[in-house]
Structure formats: C-alpha cells, structure tokens
Amino acid sequence: MKVLGIMGSPRKDGNTDILLDEALKGAESAGAQVEKISVLTLDIKPCTEDYGCAITGTCTIRDDMDDIYEKLLESDLIIVASPMFFYSMPSQLKALIDRSQALWSRKYLLKQTLSDKKRVGAFIGVGATKGKNLFEGAILTMKYFYDAIDIEYADNLLIRSVDQKGDIKEHPEALRDAYELGKKLAYA
C-alpha cells in the first residue's frame, strides 16, 4: 500500500506536521510504504482558470504540481493535514487542491478512469479556537477534493484549542489518535 501524507501547514515542525508524522508512522507500522510532501517546500502556482484542463485533462501551468498529480493518482491512501486559517486552509494547500481541477476534468468532463482500485483519504485538522464550526469549511473542501481525485473520504482527526508550535506534544491522546488513524486506514 502506498500512503501519501500532504503537510498543508506553512509552519515546519509545528502541530500539523507532528500529527501527520504520527499518522504516517501508524501507516508504516501496518506495512505501508509512506511518502510525505510539504506544501511549504513546493512551487505551486494558483489556478488561472484558463480551462486548458477541460480539453486535455492536463493543467497548462508547469510547476511542482506536475509531480504531485502522479503521486495523487498512485497513492492508495492520502492523508491531508492542515491548520485552520480563518476557518479554512492555508493558501499553499488550497493551491494544490485547486490545481487538482485537472484531475476533476479527467474524471467528469473527459470520462477517464483515474484508478481501478478502491482508494481512501483522511483529513487531520488543527485549530487554535474552540469554534463550533471550525472545521466545516475544510471538511467540505476535503470531501470535494477527494471526490475529484477518485478517493473515498474515510475519516478525520480534528483537534481544537492547540495553537503554539509544539503544543500538540502535551496532548498524548491526539498523538495516539493520529498514529491509530494511519494504522487503521493502512489496513483498510
């Protein structure tokens, strides 16, 4: 099983990064081959909505997404981890999601099969506030992102009231839950 972890935070070694690492350790413990990418290190330009992908299924912009498309299509399990910025995702992660419009075009406009196997995805969200609706926008985005790339949205791990870099280490239950999430989905 190939597992792709997408670290969506612009803050390296922060709470989101730590939780994703735990989830990937869990998947690895189940025998999965894991890879982690960080939007922080990628050059992903925003979608220009020129509709080139609607014709060819390929984005007209050349940047690091060229490699990411293949990773999205080859993975059996994708875990996206993100902090909450104004009840949504950071722009770096959102650019990756928006640019997946090319895969949506392949699936829905060009009627191409993206995968011939069942694939699953999960979302790890981390937010500083206790807001009731803190994750609603991000969850909706993840549902449509996973649908666009032909992945079943399988699970979430949503952590509230964690803000300062490294604070998640004071929440061993959250670290354990992240590990178990990766392990459980890698067995699925």
Task: Give a written overview of the molecule.
- This protein is an alpha/beta fold.
- It has a single domain, classed as Rossmann fold, CATH 3.40.50.
- Helices cover 41% and strands 18% of the residues.
- It has 7 helices and 5 strands.
- It has a 5-stranded parallel β-sheet with strand order 2-1-3-4-5, with helices on both faces.
- Helix 6 links the parallel strand 4 and strand 5.
- The longest helix has 16 residues.
- The model has no long low-confidence stretch (mean pLDDT 95).
Distance between the termini: 10 Å
Q: And the CATH topology?
A: Rossmann fold
Rg is 16 Å
**What class, by secondary structure content?**
alpha/beta
Strand order of the largest sheet: 2-1-3-4-5
From the structure above, extract its key features:
188 residues, alpha/beta, Rossmann fold, 5-stranded parallel sheet, 41% helix, 18% strand, globular
List the helices and strands and how they pair.
Blueprint (H helix, E strand, L loop, with lengths): L1 E6 L7 H15 L3 E6 L13 H5 L8 H10 L2 E7 L7 H9 L1 H9 L10 E7 L9 H13 L3 E8 L12 H16 L1
Parallel strand pairs: 1-2, 1-3, 3-4, 4-5
Helix pairs in contact: 1-7
Brief write-up:
The protein is α/β, with parallel strands linked by helices. It is built from 7 helices and 5 strands. The protein has a single domain, classed as 3-Layer(aba) Sandwich (Rossmann fold), CATH 3.40.50.360.
